[in-house]
Amino acid sequence: MNGRLIKYRSYLRNKVLNILSYKATPKPGIHILNGHFLSLNDNASPEIFHNLLVRLSRLGAGFIDFEDAAQRIKNKTFPKNECLLAFSWDDGFEECFTKIKPVVDVWKIKAAFFINPNFIDGDNDYREHFKKDIVFTNKNPMSWEMVKQLAAEGHTIGAHTLDHLSLNCNELSFLKHQIEGSKERIEAQLGIEVRHFAFPYGRLRHISQLGVDVACSTFPYVYSQDNYRHYFSFGGKVINRRHFECNWPLNHVVYFLKAKTV
């Protein structure tokens, strides 16, 4: 997808959401919001995310640690009168550490960061291909030292495959390599158990049933970025998150904090 088309789709999306989100209010439940970066603008200030949290808080939303949210969703212990938000970020971009971490630290929120080990370890050619052809951004990855500090401070580190490739296939060797391989590499670097996995691109069509089976046999917690009106997909095996970015308008974020069902 070229940059012009992405910008056009973003423009249309914003126009539609401005209409749909009029007078939206946060609904009770546990909502995992999943982003990728602070902003496509590399010069953006972390203040934009801080301000979003301030305004969400004023609307009555509360914030909980990612691990708490995942456990409560898995145990189906949902709040009846509270809107609770947890946060995760995919792809492991450097600004997750330099710009997002300082904000969640101020708010005393423990978030989750799903990373691709080969993006960290790859040479310049690999990284340029990853940025240009896979995730369509010029942002660089965190270092292992940054990831280790996040883990040491209580944030969750999850796997996102080795190479951020679609798992919508039935080639068992490929699926095991990308899913199990990412877990093994991260655990070797961090010296801790990795219990969480989010499949790349996040839509339910981006993973096969065999891929779900491999992921669920490897990790206790598996996540999509789809079907956010329901807590689970694939027969209760996959926890659904909702896409957002830190620089979204408040009303757009609130619009997606809808009532949820099992």
Spans where pLDDT lies below 50 across 5 or more residues: none
Oligomeric state, counting identical vs distinct chains: single chain
Radius of gyration: 17 Å
Residue share in β-strands: 15-25%
What's the story with the biggest beta sheet? Answer: 6 strands, parallel
- The topology string of helices and strands comes to HEHEHEHEHHHEHEHEEEEH
Q: Kindly name the structural category.
A: alpha/beta
Keywords:
TIM Barrel; alpha/beta; 10 strands; 10 helices; 262 residues; four-stranded mixed sheet; globular; six-stranded parallel sheet
Write the layout of secondary structure elements.
Elements: H1 3-20, E1 29-35, H2 47-58, E2 61-63, H3 66-75, E3 83-90, H4 95-106, E4 112-115, H5 117-121, H6 124-134, H7 144-152, E5 156-159, H8 172-190, E6 196-198, H9 209-218, E7 221-224, E8 232-233, E9 238-240, E10 242-243, H10 250-255
Parallel strand pairs: 1-3, 1-10, 2-3, 3-4, 4-5, 6-7, 7-9
Antiparallel strand pairs: 8-9
Q: Any overview of this molecule?
A:
The protein is α/β, with parallel strands linked by helices. The protein has one domain (3-255): Glycoside hydrolase/deacetylase (TIM Barrel), CATH 3.20.20. Helices cover 43% and strands 15% of the residues. It is built from ten helices and ten strands. It has helices at residues 3-20, 47-58, 66-75, 95-106, 117-121, 124-134, 144-152, 172-190, 209-218, 250-255, and strands at residues 29-35, 61-63, 83-90, 112-115, 156-159, 196-198, 221-224, 232-233, 238-240, 242-243. The strands form two sheets. Strands 1, 2, 3, 4, 5 and 10 form a six-stranded parallel β-sheet that branches. The chain has a four-stranded mixed β-sheet with strand order 6-7-9-8, with helices on both faces. The longest helix is centred in the last third of the chain and has 19 residues, at 172-190. The chain is globular.
